[in-house]
Structures
1.
Amino acid sequence: MAQGCLKCLKYTMCVANLLCFLCGVGVLGLGAYMMVNFKLASLTPTLASFNIANMLLISGIIITCVSFLGFLGALKENRCLLLTFFLLLFLLMLVELAAACLLLVYDGEISKWVESDLKKGLNNAKGGTSNTTELMSDWALIQKTFHCCGVYNITDWGQNIPASCCRSDPCSTGPDKYYHEGCLSGLKNFFEQHFLTTGIGVIVLCIIEVLGMCFAMTLFCHISRSGLGYKI
């Protein structure tokens, strides 16, 4: 009976990690596709290297590497791979919890930093730098998505108000033809509205990671008791 349960555990780990590996490959492919086809300069100069494409690439690499270790460790009943898989999951969970705590504790400081960086990004977009076209494309995307204009309001653009600030396409006439809300408040409202969903997502992810660690350690202990050593 115990052997049957352990075999079931082994193949459950294999199937779960294989699915995670395939998801990781999909995320990695999407990140590579976005990097090639969508040249986003990033609204915030400090986070220019951390646009959506780069984040997808990093996430895809982490998911594929960790899930591959878990799949191979369970399939081959290899203690080294299972222990590495356990430690990586544990480190990932610690990083996620630490990031969540920092966001809660330093919420005010992070808001001020994002505000300052958005102002720098808008000044770069207006200043005629080498990547002005990409920056304007980013601002157009964010302003159309969140129905906002500038960092605080439309006056941030001065006399050169971009077409993405218009409520309609093409731009209509009248006093209400532009969005009046600033993108800073629009972004804040968006994150506040999705705060609960993000929290639930982090909790679910941590539960999955804890289950993965439990399965890996159970299989690791069984292999140790069976004297299978470090077989490959």
Note: The chain has a mean pLDDT of 81.
2.
Amino acid sequence: MLREAILQALDGGRTAHQLVERIQRRWWAHGYARDLAEGQLTSAVGVAVALVRPSVDCPDPMCEDGVTLHLGDGCPKCDQRRTDRRRGQVPALREKRPAPQWWECEGQGCMASGKGHRPAGGLCWQCQERVEEAAAQTAVQRVSATLAAETEAAEEAARLRQTIRWARMLDEAYTEHAERGGTAQELAEAQRQAEADAEKVRILREQLLREHPELAAYAQGQT
């Protein structure tokens, strides 16, 4: 009951500091201090509720026990109310606002609840923080995986480039050897060796292209 009264007072547009001032003022002005000294307080909870709950006597929501908050002067509507009472007229009461509704967090396994406007996602602030943190971690993992894949592709491209360069060097060496006038047997052996090396290069290139088809365009540019 006391918690409801405090939440209602805060929902009515009062700050915590203003609520403290209300409690201190009513404690003395309404005679609760005297009743406590005389041993006449029978319900501590009832007194606490009376100290914090909003006043419903004045229709002006800025009225705080007969004083207009933003002006600091006596409330004219309360003055008029007292005049009407002396004349036997019934004063108007403050319009009662709809009571704030309780809502429960929709997070899995979460037992948190709140009062007032339901969050857009239906989650309390703790569950919302956990969802945002999980999304951030997923994004970091996705970026890390992308960088790792790009690094691996770059390494494979470097291997293919080195293989092609090595094949060119072998071709140039065999050509130079043939131009120097070696024997027919040496030329035949060199030719067989060149063909064997060329076959190894071809097999390695096909293997790399099967594993990394994205290097096909690069390999064609190197042939």
Note: The chain is about 65% helix and 5% strand.
3.
Amino acid sequence: MALILEISLSFLVIGILILWFRQKNKNKDFYKNIPGPPPLPIFGNILEIGSTITFIDVMLNFAKKYGGILLLHGGPIRKTLLVSDYKFLECVLSSTKILNKTEDYNFFRPWLGTGLLTSDGPKWKKHRRILTPAFHFQILEQFIDVFESGGNTLIQKLEKEVGKKSVDIYPFVTLCTLDIICETAMGTKINAQENSDSEYVRSVKDMCRIIIERSFSFLQLFDLTYPLTKNYYVEKKALKVLHQHTNSVITKRRSELKNPATKKTQDDNFGPKTKKAFLDLILDAKVDGRSLTQEEIREEVDTFMFEGHDTTASAISFAIFCLANHPEVQAKVLEEQRQLFGSNKNPSPTYADLQSMKYLEQVIKETLRLYPSVPFYGRQTNEAVEFNGSIIPEGVTITIFAYAIHRDPKYFEDPEQFNPSRFEKIDGKLPYCFIPFSAGPRNCIGQKFAMLEMKSTLSKIVRKFELMPSTPQHKLQLAAEAVLKSANGVKISLKLRD
């Protein structure tokens, strides 16, 4: 018996070593001529990366030193190309073949399952097709009053901060975007701004942090060793909160829609007197002639909650910071608002009004250039693809470094300068150098929704407050979590306008 056990263990060890050797040497010829920081044994480049706070600066220095296509080692086996080269990005993002996400997105799956963000292949294509109508302008137009309601509560909260030398506006904004996304996605009000100690918000933050930390922690990379870490137990607790909330809303909405009185109020033409939440549209959707399962619906709703909450809060907060520190830009935004609304100090902007805010849109784009809500995102080849006369083989992991190309002087003159007017000249000319919403077939399905929400919120804030630098003047400490944050807050000061 002991001999059989010994032989079995020997075969297991040999099998693991063979698998390790094959993985380590997979696509070896392709990688051998790609520059990058030399890896340490076992750890690769993980120890150089440090924390989420140092991550962006380290990656940016790598890109400056080794170029727009470089090789990183994530431990003894994992390899990834860090890419900020325009032609390579154009090849990847425009491709209908390079659609799969990287292994890092597996860390999202306990939370988001295989929703639109994380799914591959046929499922992604089918779900993208059925979800696209949810972002038709007639759907988006009906949510303007939700943006207004959430923004009005935000203004009330910020009024209490007027006159303080330093106010961290991010916590206020993230609760506002959570209120908005819950009502638009799920058709339910959670009043997060009135309950600032929201367990749901804390759980979202925990998951965003954990996903990035797992990508660059040797102990957390593997399912076998991950339960040995504190994050494993924090994640379990957070997932319980997140999934229970979404499932309860779905169950409640299913019940309401079965009620004849509720059905009678639904208007398939999406008229101005009725609203259909994102959830309602998914409940009505069919895939291959069948309705989506409870799990499929939860995955898509959770995905929309994640992508439409924290990303938008990040962008709005950084835009407020930029306006506070660039009074000449803020003055032009205010002038545009006054041209639109005249002496009306409390207008209710329409869809057409928001579309007319062209300079504010440039401000948002310039903010997203400097502070893209998602500074990195990934693709993985599932077949060989030609690029520039050579072949990218199957199984290559590609990390798209949006933050780096956004600050490349080849595409943006004086790239560190906040200059919204640059988008008057460059907008649309080089589509793969400005990619805060990705680009190509897997671009962000909700980017028009996000732009409307950001315009609505920022226009309301600028009309109500003069935004000024904090005292002492705040310096952002960027942290690359799943969404770009400032580890030390986003601090300004506020003064009521006359």
Note: The chain has one domain: 58-496.
